[in-house]
Automatic annotation (TrEMBL), chain A:
Gene Ontology annotations for the cellular component aspect, listed alphabetically: mitochondrial large ribosomal subunit
GO molecular function: structural constituent of ribosome
Natural source organism: Lasiosphaeria miniovina
PANTHER family (alphabetical): 50S RIBOSOMAL PROTEIN L21, LARGE RIBOSOMAL SUBUNIT PROTEIN BL21M
Chain ranges passing through the membrane: none
Keywords in alphabetical order: Ribonucleoprotein, Ribosomal protein
UniProt-listed InterPro entries: bL21-like, bL21-like_sf
Protein name: Large ribosomal subunit protein bL21m
Keyword Ribosomal protein: yes
Pfam families reported in the protein's UniProt record: Ribosomal_L21p
From TrEMBL, chain B:
A Gene Ontology term for the protein's cellular component: mitochondrial large ribosomal subunit
Species annotation: Lasiosphaeria miniovina
Broad class of where this protein is predominantly found: mitochondrion
Family (UniProt): Belongs to the mitochondrion-specific ribosomal protein mL43 family.
Protein name: Large ribosomal subunit protein mL43
Statement: the UniProt record of this protein carries the keyword Mitochondrion: yes
Record's keyword terms, sorted: Mitochondrion, Ribonucleoprotein, Ribosomal protein
């Protein structure tokens, strides 16, 4: 009897003596440095499935038309604050991708004349695609596509909805809106659902030197986050307003 | 010669519309006596109630399996299952394995080289050399 009591005490002590991983701690450690979600959120429990819903953009932003025709449609707002995730990416991959400008999320600049005239035509055509960027890599997606990211995205659970706000191009059959480098976030809405984490068969690499009997077996198995593009919409009603 | 209907079969695309978790059931097997089940017994006592309460869409069963190593088996909607032996693991290590089973799709692991899979028609169509204005060489 005493042995059973001792053992149960030992078992129950295990999670207490060792600090759980930071995502299990009930205190918010840092805002989520995730470039593709709309709003940064605190660290989440494994059982927390609340969705992050971004506030709607007031249509009065786009109502005024004090624009110049030569202006790029995706010119970033000079007052916009840089996102931590984006600056981190640029630091890591500065040799490959151009330095991204501060995000145009809170941009209040009016769209250019060509965008205002041609975006309704683009939206009127039936099929749409977008070249969405996630951590610096482009994915040409349409609604309903399955995207297997080449990494495991931290801090997401199956069923979470992400909004992809970075795109270098959106288009239909005859029209393409290319950004410089990013398409304005107000003209499209691309959302993805996290389906889960997939894996690959174990990779085995045998490392062997000549005239030596030792052979080293190196194993690796990567994990990938899988997304489903649930929505890709061109917001032409903002232009019409 | 009559008119032939186009035969089409719908394919499920999870997440387009509704999202359904692929893991439908998890079995936890433990042993009261063996030392390799020590962490598993602690997990069942301390962590599993919270995890099960957080996932009402998964059916959880806990059953003894005397004189065997502890095992977690996940059952999936596609009919397959995944079993993970968790002998000598700590409760938090077991939690990682449980989350792995929850996040898995139940499919067999396979190597995928193209990141985007699509069954939609190409938006911009297929390029043809016989259409358009052509290019002067």
């Amino acid at each position: 009897m005493s042995r059973a009591l001792l053992r149960s005490a030992l078992e129950l002590r295990t999670p207490i003596t060792r600090l759980p991983p930071p995502f299990l701690l009930p205190i918010p450690i840092r805002p989520r440095a995730n470039a593709l979600t709309a709003a940064p959120a605190a660290a989440r429990f494994f059982n927390q499935t609340t969705q992050i819903v971004d506030p709607p953009i007031p249509s009065s932003i786009l109502a005024d038309a004090g624009r110049t025709p030569t202006q790029s449609p995706t010119a970033p707002a000079p007052t916009a604050a840089p996102v931590a995730g984006i600056s981190k990416i640029s630091a890591a991959l500065s040799t490959q991708i151009p330095q991204p400008p501060p995000p145009a999320r809170t941009s209040t600049e009016p769209l250019s004349e060509s965008v205002r005239t041609l975006l309704p035509l683009l939206a009127a055509q039936p099929g749409h695609y977008a070249t969405a960027h996630i951590h610096g890599r482009p994915y040409l997606v349409t609604a309903g596509d399955l995207v297997r990211l080449p990494f495991k995205m931290p801090g997401v659970a199956p069923g979470d909805m992400l909004r992809l706000t970075r795109a270098t191009a959106i288009g239909s059959r005859d029209f393409t809106l290319t950004g410089a480098p990013w398409v304005d976030e107000r003209v499209f809405e691309c959302r993805a659902v996290v389906l889960g984490t997939e894996s690959e068969p174990m990779r085995v690499l045998i490392k062997k030197k000549r005239r030596q009997r030792r052979a080293k077996r190196v194993e690796s198995k990567h994990r990938f986050t899988v997304l489903r593009i649930s929505e890709l919409r061109i917001c032409d009603e903002l232009v019409a307003a | 010669m009559g008119v032939k209907a186009v035969h089409r079969i719908t394919t499920g695309r999870n997440g387009l519309g509704a999202f359904i978790l692929q893991c439908k059931k998890m079995d936890f097997h433990y042993c009261d006596w063996a030392g390799s089940s020590k962490g598993m017994n602690g997990f069942i006592k301390s962590i599993l109630p919270k995890f099960a309460a957080a996932h009402p869409q998964i059916e959880f069963t806990v059953s003894p399996r005397p004189s065997k190593h502890p095992v977690i088996i996940g059952h999936y909607i596609n009919g397959r299952d995944k079993a993970i032996c968790v002998r000598n693991l700590e409760p938090l290590q077991i939690l990682k394995k449980v989350e792995l089973l929850r996040d898995a799709s139940g499919e067999k692991l396979k190597k995928v080289t193209k990141p985007v899979q699509s069954i939609n028609e190409s938006v911009r169509g297929i390029w043809s050399p016989y259409h358009g204005n052509g290019m002067r060489v």
